[in-house]
Amino acid sequence: MAAIVGLFTLLLLHLLFTLVCSHCIARPPVIFNFGDSNSDTGGLVAGLGFPVLLPNGRSFFRRSTGRLSDGRLLIDFLCESLNTNLLNPYMDSLAGSNFKNGANFAIVGSSTLPKYVPFSLNIQVMQFLHFRSRMLELLNGNLGHGNLIDDSGFRNALYMIDIGQNDIADSFAKNLSYSQVINLIPSFISEIKNAMKALYDQGGRKFWIHNTGPLGCLPQKLSLFPTKDLDRHGCISSFNAAATLFNTALKSLCQNMRNELKDANIVYVDIYTIKYNLIANSSLYGFPNPLMACCGAGGPPYNYNIRVTCGQPGYEVCNEDSKFISWDGIHYSEAANKIVASKVLSTAYSTPPLPFDFFCHN
């Protein structure tokens, strides 16, 4: 019976994903994304030359693109729903300067703090400010080649922010107590507020803000922080509680910013609930080992070894037709990302419940 229910659930999600996929009719979609490895489409490799090797990228691209997954990320599915190109990393000098549909400033390992450390959130915003200034300069000088964004494009673009996971994770990694980590959350939120205001001051009016996922359910954390502090689904309770408090503060920020910036549309998306429900109800989606990485080392229960990570000598990887939520112990598989995307696109987890393509139409 569970298998039948699971199959029905997957078919329903596939239908929903198909139905919500549309394209922007009123104007071409332009998206600027700021974040960490959850939405980095190759910035780490392009910016630092850091090797991200196969089997990363094996399921869709059939090669490594710098994404930390076997295939597409959530942001890729969101772009596909608009029938627009996948976002090129801002740092990629070989992208053919094809940034007509926006640019991705997200970089693996990024956080809100400390500031002025590549590639913190405020550095990403500074990169955007340079990008915008240079783009308009080229346009005004008639030096463009048809791939430039004009002032209207910047004003009507969608500004996505997906960051915070590393701030919380790094705080716990420094052996800070739970209360010490919680006390840092306002400073993290303040940096996100500063980023939003900086983008708003440059004409940005449409924001799409993802909260952070259930940190305590990542195989990496479960392997590195053995504890009895586990919830009924096997996740670290204190880590998830910290993520939840961060998300509560982020949601409050979005509401306050709506009141402060009257002409801005700010959509807050509850990624945490989507991902936690995916883990809690993993059997319904056909994932038999929700807390185990597909690519890593060490075998059950988590298949994660910090000395032998995915793609490094000695790693092991599951069969390509296997179903895993976690790809490498930190990042999600393409199969999981597709389900997360379908739920994001449903608007059921968005406040206010605007469709993802809202920025193209008003």
Helix amount: 25-40%
CATH topology: Rossmann fold
Please give the CATH architecture.
3-Layer(aba) Sandwich
Please tally the β strands and state the result: 8
Short recap of the structure:
Residues 1-22 form the signal peptide. The protein is α/β, with parallel strands linked by helices and 362 residues long. The chain has helices at residues 2-20, 43-48, 74-80, 121-140, 151-155, 165-173, 178-201, 219-224, 237-260, 271-280, 334-345; strands at residues 31-35, 102-104, 158-162, 206-210, 265-269, 295-296, 316-317, 350-351.
Describe this structure in words.
This protein is α/β, with parallel strands linked by helices and 362 residues long. The protein has one domain: SGNH hydrolase (Rossmann fold, 3-Layer(aba) Sandwich). Helix content is 39%, strand content 8%. Helix 1 (2-20) packs across helix 11, helix 3 (74-80) crosses helix 11 (334-345) and helix 10 (271-280) packs across helix 11. The protein is globular, with a radius of gyration of 20 Å.
SSE arrangement:
Elements: H1 2-20, E1 31-35, H2 43-48, H3 74-80, E2 102-104, H4 121-140, H5 151-155, E3 158-162, H6 165-173, H7 178-201, E4 206-210, H8 219-224, H9 237-260, E5 265-269, H10 271-280, E6 295-296, E7 316-317, H11 334-345, E8 350-351
Parallel strand pairs: 1-2, 1-3, 3-4, 4-5
Antiparallel strand pairs: 5-8, 6-7
Keywords: Glycoprotein, Hydrolase, Signal
Organism: Cucumis melo
InterPro entries: GDSL (IPR001087), SGNH_hydro_sf (IPR036514), SGNH_plant_lipase-like (IPR035669)
